[in-house]
User: Fold these one by one.
Assistant:
Number 1:
Amino acid sequence: MLKKKKNSSLPSYIKKELIKPTKIYVRELNKINEKKLINSCANITGGGLLNNLFRIVPKNLCLNIDLSKIKIKPIFKWLKKNNIKDSEMLKTFNCGVGFCLITNKQNMKKIKSIFSKAYQPYQIGFLTKEKLKIKTFGKLQW
């Protein structure tokens, strides 16, 4: 009888994360949209966080992202251990930010009430009037 060899390089909590289904936000987004609480939104998929946000920033505005506010999931911390630059992580992965909304700040309380505790939205940036589409500041907390 052959004995299965354990894959010691991949922690069990990462294995569980890899097979976890993607959260679909349709129910929440329909409610938010019905109440006219959002200006723009993006599902953060292939192309990473920054490239997906680039396309939803309104003309003549700049999205200022505070990288220190991003709640990084363990799988991305594990990937980062393989000497991947922060800029490459942001171009390739969502780093734990699966969906982004652009909204007026006064709408945040109403928006948060629509989401379950497990998927509470949080602010990672703000808009300013500038020609540059996206600026980042702060540091990712690996």
Number 2:
Amino acid sequence: MINLSKSEFVKSAPRKKDFLLDKPQVCFLGKSNVGKSSLINAICNNRKLVYVSKTPGHTKMLNYFLTDGRFYLVDAPGYGYFKDRSYDFETLMLDYFRSSGKCLKRAYLLLDVRRTITEDDFATMEILNQFGIAFTIVFTKADKLNQSMKAKAQNEIQKHLENFEVIMTSSTKKTGLDDLRRNISTALNSK
């Protein structure tokens, strides 16, 4: 299994010319404020690896982390919340998906389990499908669910995501992290 604890920041890529395409990689993406940075820190056992901002929309570049000396874990900007109108999330991500080819082994689409799945989330799934990128749905913040919220979340999964691979996680309670680590390891070790 890949040692995600051996992850270190390599570079940020604001444009296509800055992308790293020399190693296999997995990409984490999702709506701003979904808990992406916290989850990456949790699976890598390093609370300081990725900056966790209290302000949504903080990440505006692809951030590459060299993992176990052999792979990149890529932290993509969040979508759905931008104060800076000069920033073009869609172009950056489409360029990345077009450029990454066989380097991108799997995308992890993070969704807040307490929220309804949005048009932006479904559009992202559609784009991943169009590019033929395998992806896993990762629900975050599972520790914040009460019983009725759990029932609602289960209903959403059955209604909209029954044909998708789904992992339920909590960065705080550390639930689902081993499942996610195994999934990443399998994706990166596949041909």
